[in-house]
């Protein structure tokens, strides 16, 4: 009789543990989703991806420009075209700085800047 009671108690405690574990996991998932929304992780991630794309495009453009200028003069550093390259780089940087960007601040507001 005692063994049967002990077996039923063990089975009941295992079922109770499993039920609490499932309930706890769902509760933690809701907290996690709320935290993602509160901290606007999606907005920040999108802004970071966009800025990385701008940096990648700028690097590619400057690399292509410097390699084509170096190849034309035979000098890998650009030779006689170095002054022209500097002006072109300044123009590229100026153009990039004028592009609108999304800025996220800790208050949760998304600002468009130009």
Tag the structure with descriptive keywords.
single chain; 114 residues; mainly alpha; two-stranded antiparallel sheet; 2 strands; 75% helix; 7% strand
Describe this structure in words.
By secondary structure, this protein is mainly alpha-helical. The chain has a two-stranded antiparallel sheet. It is built from three helices and two strands. The longest helix has about 35 residues. The model has no long low-confidence stretch (mean pLDDT about 75). Helix 2 runs antiparallel to helix 3.
Count of strand segments: 2
N-to-C span: 80 Å
Order of strands side by side in the largest beta sheet? 1-2
Helical content (DSSP H or I, runs of 4+): over 70%
Helix count equals: 3
* Largest sheet properties: 2 strands, antiparallel
**Cα-atom radius of gyration:** 30 Å
Give the DSSP E fraction (strand runs of 2 or more residues): 5-15%
Structural class: mainly alpha
Structure in a nutshell:
The chain is mainly alpha-helical and 114 residues long. It has helices at 2-38, 41-73, 82-97; strands at residues 101-104, 110-113. A hairpin with a 5-residue loop joins strand 1 and strand 2 (110-113).
Write the layout of secondary structure elements.
Blueprint: H1 2-38, H2 41-73, H3 82-97, E1 101-104, E2 110-113
Antiparallel strand pairs: 1-2
